[in-house]
């Protein structure tokens, strides 16, 4: 299920917008208490229900075994795309396979100084 095919309730949209803004500003996810305070939700179970719905709809992901484990999917994809190095394949230096630089002095893996 993609995020474009799922409509959100007003509460889910408020929770999503808060989480997204918080992650952009702080670099990590808010606690459920912070989400509840910001969105006017009195109970943690109300927050959990909204977060579960956002995870099911594909707007959020959870990292297992970590506190503040919510990941905003579109922000995660932007960060992942930004982290991929771009290599100019046309301007790489040539590699001389005849040189034997795998053994001996000068090779950091040889154990010889």
Short description:
By secondary structure, this protein is mainly alpha-helical.
What does this structure look like?
This protein has 113 residues and is mainly alpha-helical. Helices cover 44% and strands 5% of the residues. The protein has helices spanning 10-26, 32-39, 44-57, 73-83, and strands at residues 60-62, 70-72. It has a two-stranded antiparallel sheet. A hairpin with a 7-residue loop joins β1 (60-62) and β2 (70-72). α2 (32-39) packs across α3. The chain is elongated.
**Per CATH, what is the topology?**
Arc Repressor Mutant, subunit A
H/E series: HHHEEH
The Cα radius of gyration reads: 23 Å
Distance between the termini: 57 Å
CATH class: Mainly Alpha
Lateral strand order in the biggest sheet: 1-2
The biggest sheet, with number of strands, parallel, antiparallel or mixed sense and barrel status, is: 2 strands, antiparallel
The helix/strand class is: mainly alpha
Q: Tell me which CATH architecture applies here.
A: Orthogonal Bundle
Mean pLDDT: 78
Number of strands: 2
């Amino acid at each position: 299920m993609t995020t474009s095919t799922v409509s959100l309730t007003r509460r889910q949209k408020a929770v999503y917008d808060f989480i997204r803004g918080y992650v952009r500003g702080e670099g990590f996810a808010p606690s459920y208490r912070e989400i509840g305070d910001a969105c006017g939700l009195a109970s943690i179970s109300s927050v959990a229900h909204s977060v579960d719905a956002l995870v099911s709809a594909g707007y959020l992901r959870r990292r297992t075994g970590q506190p503040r484990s919510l990941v905003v999917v579109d922000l995660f994809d932007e960060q992942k795309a930004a982290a991929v190095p771009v290599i100019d394949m046309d301007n790489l230096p040539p590699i001389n396979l005849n040189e034997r630089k795998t053994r001996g002095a000068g090779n950091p893996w040889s154990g010889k100084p």
